Amino acid sequence: MQRLKNIVLFIVVSTLFSSIAVFSNDNWKDKEQVLDEVERANKTFESIEADLTFTKIIPLLEVNEVSNGEIRYKKPGYAYIKFSEPRNEINVIDGEYVWIFHPGAKQVEKYKAKMDAQEGDSQATQGINFFELGYKGSVAEAKKGYEISLIEKKVEKGKRFYVLELIPKVNLPEADDRYSKIHLWIEEGFWLPSVIELFESEGEIVNKIELNNIALNKPMPAKTFQFVIPKGVEVIEPFK
């Protein structure tokens, strides 16, 4: 389940710059205006290709693990994510299954991409809801599952960002309550998340996904999201 949880973290979505300053300007938009812009941007978005950096921070253990990689995502839910060392992992969502390939171990984990309500387990990547705010579902759907606040307005190297905080509502299917809160950095003009911060255990664990070199709506052939099992690789199906 931990690996399945990780695929949720990766499905996500420009650069996180090093210098941060609070920008004082009366022309900033309010929360509803930002959400309106996100909704408009979502309507023209079909696919994304980007470099990404995933950072897992556990302050109490002094852990700060950084993995670089690339992501390709296409509506309504196809994804290809590749990580170099130290994670050394490839994740593919082909519309029917989630494949999590560990080349070093010569193993691939296979999960259903969608929840079977009769089974009542967590085989689905249901945590994708946080990602859908900017890249798949509507703002209205996000509001059903989360309390949304605009907590910060900042500028980094001339780019303006609106930081939205999402707090999951209790016991609702639209929310992913594995995270105590989620922060989405919405870049003005782009109006889609370029940084996603996921807080576990009341902030004791922070997962940060940063997207760089973003390209929208590039043609992506179907084979991009097809996983071919390499020879000699063991297939593990945890819920079968």
Write a structural description.
The structure is a single chain. By secondary structure, the protein is of the alpha+beta class. It has helices spanning about 1-10, 30-45, 130-135, 140-145; strands at about 20, 45-60, 65-75, 80-85, 90-95, 95-100, 105-110, 145-155, 160-170, 180-185, 195-200, 205-215, 235. The chain has a 13-stranded mixed sheet. Helix 3 packs antiparallel against helix 4. The longest helix is centred in the N-terminal third of the chain and has 14 residues, at about 30-45. Mean pLDDT is about 80; it is low at about 10-25 and about 115-130.
Map the helices and strands.
Elements lengths: L1 H9 L10 E2 L8 H14 L2 E12 L4 E12 L3 E6 L5 E5 L3 E6 L4 E6 L16 H7 L3 H7 E11 L2 E10 L12 E7 L5 E8 L4 E12 L17 E3 L4
Helix pairs in contact: 3-4
Summed up, what is this model?
With 240 residues, this protein is α+β, with helices and mostly antiparallel strands.
Mean pLDDT: 80
Gap between N and C termini, in Å? 13 Å
What structural class should be given to the helix and strand makeup? alpha+beta
Order of helices and strands: HEHEEEEEEHHEEEEEE
Uncertain runs with pLDDT below 50, 5 residues or more?
8-24, 115-130
Order of adjacent strands in the largest pleated sheet: 1-8-9-10-11-12-2-3-4-5-6-7-13
Total helices: the number is 4
- What is the helix content? 10-25%
Which radius of gyration do the C-alpha atoms yield? 18 Å
- The tally of strands reads 13
Major sheet summary line? 13 strands, mixed
Q: β content, as a range?
A: 35-45%
Shape: globular
Oligomer: single chain
